Amino acid sequence: MTAVGDALTPADLAWRNMYELPWRHQHPAPFALAVTGGALAVAVLATVVASAVGWI
Hints:
mainly alpha, 66% helix, rod-shaped
């Protein structure tokens, strides 16, 4: 972390961090787990609903 002498405006702060990667690129493994978990949850929910309706 770099110490800054002057107060920064939001625009200055964005300019200083414009090359910082988004969270999903900084932490690819947790992002992949979250996406996989979400897809699995949707698939399970769809299966439960289809079973309740009588499609399965």
